[in-house]
Here is the input.
Amino acid sequence: MGMIVEKVDELGRPLRVDLQGLRGLGVLLVVIGHLWLWPPGAFAALDIFFVLSGFFITAILIDQFAQQDRLRLGTFYLARFRRLVPTALTVIVVTVLLTKLLYNPAKADEVTQQGIWAALFASNWYFIENSTNYFANLGNASFIHYWSLSVEEQFYVVWPCLILVTLLTARRRAWSLSTSLLVVFGTATAVSFGYSMWHSAAHPVAAYFSTFDRVWEFGVGALLAVARPLFKDLRERISTGIMWTASAALIASLAFLDYSIQYPAPWGLLPVLACAGLIVGGHSGRVPNRRMWPITNVPMVYLGTISYSFYLWHLPVIFLLRAYFAEDTQFYRAVAFAVSLVVGSLSFHLLERPVRRAQSLMTHAERAHLQNKAPIDLRPVMLGWIAVVTVATVGLYGLVAAQNPSTADSSLSRGPQPTAPTTDDPTASTLERHQEALRASLTASDFPTFDPPLQDLASGKWLGQLNDYRCRLDTMSTLGDCRHGPDDASQTAVLIGDSYASSLAPGIIAALGKGWTVQQFANSGCPAWTLPEYYNADGTPYPLCARRQTEALDFVRREEPDLVILVSAADAYVAGARNFDIDRQNSDLASWALGQTLKKLTDLTKRIVVIEGTPNHKRLLDCVTRFAEPDDCVSSPTSDWELGRAGEQKAAREYGATYVPTLPWFCINGRCPAFMGRTPVTADGRHVTLAFSLRLTALLREALLGTDADTTP
Here is the structure.
């Protein structure tokens, strides 16, 4: 009857089959979660690896000190290098090369930048600096999963030094080594958890990636490593009970946690304590494998063995295959899973394991453990990988060139450039002419050379172009900075809203003309709604919006403008619904919140116009690939957008405001192209480009100054 501790690793150390299987379960859940977005708490599986890393690393180091009365940090760091770096760098290089072949140059530059940060094991800080939402960017960042590897590497750099200092200090002062370690680890764990409790509430996006917010998870594993003698003699029945209780807690965390909760603290405690229970319960070695078969079966243990390679390859494979497959199909997901598993397995057997066992990269002490094993020669392994990458790259390039002979163009254009459509009907309206151009884009067979180019969208240059209209998209600005037009203009308009209002501002200013002064009160993340409190999309409190709302109302009350224009993201209610007692599945929040603003404005101005927010589009940087067609860049309005739109329409009717439906400006029969002619519609899938905003000038002029635009399509 096999027990849980029954194998050894390449260096002769005991290998716990249950924890190896737990690794397999963890990586399986992560990959399934990224592909199928199920189970809802799949992201919590990463916490398993942090706890296991803290346990194993601490156990290895304190056992080495107990046996040799010293810590060989050089040996430790060299082993970590062999274990992690070659495979990680290989994945980065291959992914960057294939992205350059498959995607547009702008996307390749974006991936290359992320790859550099991944190679430096600092991805988590890169994503924090760029305010990246992990749950909203899995499709846009092929290296976003490297954040956890970066956290682990940063932990590996600091933690052994902390252990060494603690052990040396305790020995010098004749303190108990175990007690000293428990005090130091316990303090570090408690401080990190306390910090994460605050940070997860105040800055949830940053907290998810932050190393400081994750130290406590490693610390729990480290405390268990020190406390191993306390549970090495647990009876079989008690050990089994602990392990099944922990398994139930793990299942609960996968089933009931979701991205909207406060994480990693306090809710990360659930998967962390579940993993701790499995470590404790299995440590005695008395639990038969058959009793923990979900994690001790052969396939799961094998997945645990190849988990590192499998994890590193799966997101690049998911990302790269989108150049060939429609991403919303079960076939694509199944192919992506299978390819990730095969490539991960090959990577483990041909690269990861040979490098780990390469005696030329070992110290003398490590080689002593491998006296009975044949040495590994790295040269054929490396030559084999170089050959595989070269053949794959040349073959793929040949396939691309054969199918797309004109791929040298930086925008991937493959045919004649489109011309502005014309109509023979002299009675055609402005909207009809605009929709003819939309229809031409929906039926286009080739991508145009975009103007502005995709590089401008990738670099953020589009933000600077909007700033030329005297109001920054991403920060609060003074009244003077956000005023456009002559101060002595005969008429005044006030634009209130969020970044959607800012991106429409160029078209609105052009539509009103020289006889108007336009005062903007538009700030990113601040809808033109009145809410008890304001929140970012990730649930972070955003008090600046309340100040902006007060400034706008005071200005309108004082200046009595001729026109007030309100523009908000139609799905902005999604963030608010998490924080107020209003059903997320209806439009009550949008209707009520906009109604509160309209109620305040009704007696302060001559005319109020509510312009519908831009429906979400495909991001051109992601959908323009060597194998894509323009139809692959066509989207449909989301259900959240439709609900928010309905709520705003209801409020406008109730308070007598003019409502301008923009859906016909972007979509025909629910199909929304990502470009019109040569003009990208949006810069990032949400905000219109400067060029497209100006193309809406005639439509905006009619809506604001011309015929009644209050009809709902």
